[in-house]
Amino acid sequence: MHKSLMWMIIMSVIPLAQCAPHFEDDVALSEQGKVRVQIALVGDACGVSSGLASVEAPDIFSTLFASMVVEDDALVGTMAEIPAGVNRQLVVQAMNDEDQVVYEGRAEVTVVANQYVEAQLTLERNFTNCPDGSSGGD
Questions:
Q1: Closest by CA position to 70, among listed 34, 104, 96
Q2: Which of 56, 57, 73, 74 has its CA nearest to residue 65?
Q3: DSSP secondary-structure letter at 46?
Q4: How far apart are CA 13 and CA 117, in angstroms?
Q5: Exposed e or buried b per residue across 102-129, where buried means at least 16 C-beta atoms within 10 angstroms of its C-beta
Q6: What is the pLDDT of residue 110?
Q7: How far is CA 9 from CA 53, 58, 108, in A?
Q8: Could you count the other beta carbons within 10 Å of the beta carbon of residue 46?
C-alpha cells in the first residue's frame, strides 16, 4: 500500500475583497504576487532539513525557485515576484541532510497581484530516499 504524508501549506493571506478575484486571459506579467509556504514537520520520519519550492507556468519564461528552511518544526519559505495569473504549478521538495528529496508535492495556485496566496498540497514520501524504518525527524 502506497503511503503518503498529508501536509497542508499554510500561507498568509492579506485580506481581499469579499468576492474572489477574476482574471482575464491576458493578465499583465508586470503584476506580481508572493507565496509564503509553511509546512508542519510533525511526524516527519525522514529527517527533513531543508526544502525547495518552485513555480512554473506556460506564460512564465523560466521556472522560479526559492529555498526553504526548517524553523520551529516547520519547513518555511517565501516566493516573491511571481507573475500574477492562474494555473501556476507550485512544487515543494523536502530534503534530508544528504540533500536527497524525501518528500515532494505539487499544487495549482492562482497568484494575485500584490498579495499573498494560499494553497493545499500533499507531500508524498520518496521511499527510495527514505524507506520504511528510516530514522530522523520527529
A1: 96
A2: 56
A3: S
A4: 6
A5: bbbbbeebbbbbebbbebebebbbbeeb
A6: 92
A7: 11, 23, 12
A8: 24
CB 37 within 8 A of CB 50: no
Nearest Cα neighbor of 94 from 105, 80, 108 is 105
Please report, in angstroms and rounded to a whole number, the separation of the first and last CA atoms in the chain: 23
Secondary structure of 101-127 in HEC code, one letter for each residue: EEEEEEEEEEECCCCECCCCEEEEECC
Neighbours of 36 (CB within 10 A): 19
Distance between CA atoms of residues 82 and 72, nearest Å: 26
Report d(CA 30, CA 26) in Å as an integer.
11
Residues in the chain: 138
What phi and psi values does residue 103 have, to the nearest 5 degrees?
Answer: -140, 150
Question: In the block, which residue shows the cell 500574477?
Answer: 84
Q: Which amino acid is at 99?
A: D
**Amino acid making up residue 75:** L
pTM comes to: 0.74
pLDDT in tens, 21-59: 444 444 444 699 999 888 888 889 999 999 999 999 999
